[in-house]
Design a protein that fits this description.
Blueprint: H1 2-5, E1 6-12, H2 19-27, E2 35-40, H3 47-57, E3 63-68, H4 75-80, E4 90-95, E5 99-100, H5 104-114, E6 119-129, E7 135-136, H6 151-160, E8 169-172, H7 173-176, H8 189-200, E9 202-214, H9 220-223, H10 226-241, H11 244-250, H12 256-273, H13 277-295, H14 300-313, H15 316-327, H16 357-364, H17 367-378, H18 389-397
Parallel strand pairs: 1-2, 1-4, 2-3, 6-9
Antiparallel strand pairs: 4-8, 5-9, 6-7, 6-8
């Protein structure tokens, strides 16, 4: 039953220090045998050699398949682009450098078997260890604040901070196939993927600590630059609010209080996740523009969000127009009654000024002839050093 219900995804990249440990962890799980797809993302160390040696010289309880990318396509692409390799409805995520307790997968199996058809994400609690495997203090997370059925509430919470423990997840393949996230960013794409799934499916949290997440200087989050992180979140949030998934969850926003809560969640998400003030202001305005096109200027909360974002950017003309659109929902109709003593209005046709030499030449020479002359001129050596946009485009388009 368990073998048909789910498969395990183990992504590897330069996992030489931990690869034997994670295989041992999977073999030690206290549940029936299962299938494991190992997808290596073009490791440059001995990860693949170690795996091949292990698989060739040992008899395992579980069934392992090793797939290897020719080049590094990113962790999320390595997973999403290989979804067709998984035959089961549920995919259990396993990270190469984390520590999974013997009851981890069995706990997920029990939750999967009880999950409703609308569930797309199931995950357990986790603790932390450092690079040497020593247990770190793990404060409570916000996982317990997730709702089993309120997708809007889950979306707003997860915008601000990630309550879903991605290394402890089981994800439904059919829901994954509906999502689309950036593949080449080095941050936030896993969070964006989960946010999209939360908009269209329910979440089940199992409050049981079944794994330890390794926090050390080699974590992807630790080696991503501030600019790369801010840029990735900018792209992710803007694309998220343009998505069909968010369109669906926003249909649940139906009162001023919920609109205010949504805007508050967006503002806090931007403030928490992005360091650069300039990028914060830009992403705030981009999301506000998207929402205003959905709800219109008569939605007070959304228009106020737009006004605040324009204020932060210092766009005074746009700010004035947004304020006017909020306050002026109607127009005035003014009708003039015709006088009994009326004279007909005679229009005054404007005339061109004096006929210059240039104008006379234009009148004498046809447009095609003029274009041919300019084509010859703009391609000649006389304008080789001219870099004006008009000249550059003319020369390029004529090739």
């Amino acid at each position: 039953m368990s073998k048909e219900l789910f498969e395990v995804f183990l992504g590897t990249f330069n996992a030489e220090p931990w690869i034997e440990q994670i295989i041992n962890s999977l073999e030690a799980q206290d549940c029936p045998a299962f299938r494991v797809k190992i997808i290596d993302n073009a490791s440059t160390d001995d990860t693949v050699a170690i795996l091949k040696n292990l698989l060739a010289n040992n008899i395992f309880k579980n069934e392992y398949t090793l797939l290897s990318n020719d080049s590094n396509i990113g962790a999320i692409s390595s997973f999403l682009d290989r979804l067709d390799e998984f035959d089961s409805e549920w995919i259990v995520m396993v990270h190469q450098d984390d520590n999974y307790h013997v009851d981890h997968i069995g706990t997920l199996i029990s939750a999967l078997m009880e999950a409703s058809a609308s569930t797309g994400i199931v995950f357990t609690a986790m603790q932390r260890i450092n690079g040497e495997g020593d247990v770190k203090f793990s404060p409570p997370t916000l996982s317990s604040k997730l709702s089993k059925t309120d997708r809007l509430e889950n979306f707003m919470l997860s915008l601000q901070i990630s309550p879903v423990n991605f290394p402890a997840c089981a994800l439904k393949k059919s829901e994954l196939l509906k999502t689309n996230t950036s593949r080449h960013t080095t941050a936030f794409n896993d969070t964006e993927m989960l946010l999209r799934m939360m908009c269209i499916s329910d979440v089940v949290y199992v409050p049981r600590e079944t794994m330890h997440y390794r926090v050390y200087p080699g974590n992807a989050a630790s080696i991503t630059s501030s600019l790369a992180n801010d840029r990735a979140i900018f792209v992710g949030l803007v694309e998220l609010f343009h998505s069909d998934e968010v369109d669906k969850v926003l249909t649940l926003v139906h009162s001023p209080d919920l609109f205010e809560k949504l805007i508050q969640s967006i503002n806090q998400a931007i403030d928490i996740r992005i360091q650069s003030t300039e990028i914060q202001n830009l992403v705030s305005n981009m999301i506000a523009e998207t929402l205003i096109r959905r709800y219109g200027y008569q939605n007070k909360e959304i228009t106020q969000f737009l006004i605040e974002s324009l204020t932060n950017l210092g766009l005074t003309r746009e700010l004035e127009m947004a304020k006017n659109l909020l306050s002026n929902s109607k127009f005035q109709r003014i009708e003039y009654s015709r006088s009994t003593e009326v004279s007909y209005f005679v229009p005054n046709i404007s005339q061109l000024g004096k006929s210059s030499v240039a104008n006379k030449l234009v009148q004498l020479i046809s447009l095609p002839t003029r274009e041919s002359f300019f084509d010859f001129l703009l391609r000649s050596w006389l304008v080789n050093k001219v870099s004006r946009p008009f000249v550059r485009v003319w020369r390029l388009r004529g090739k």
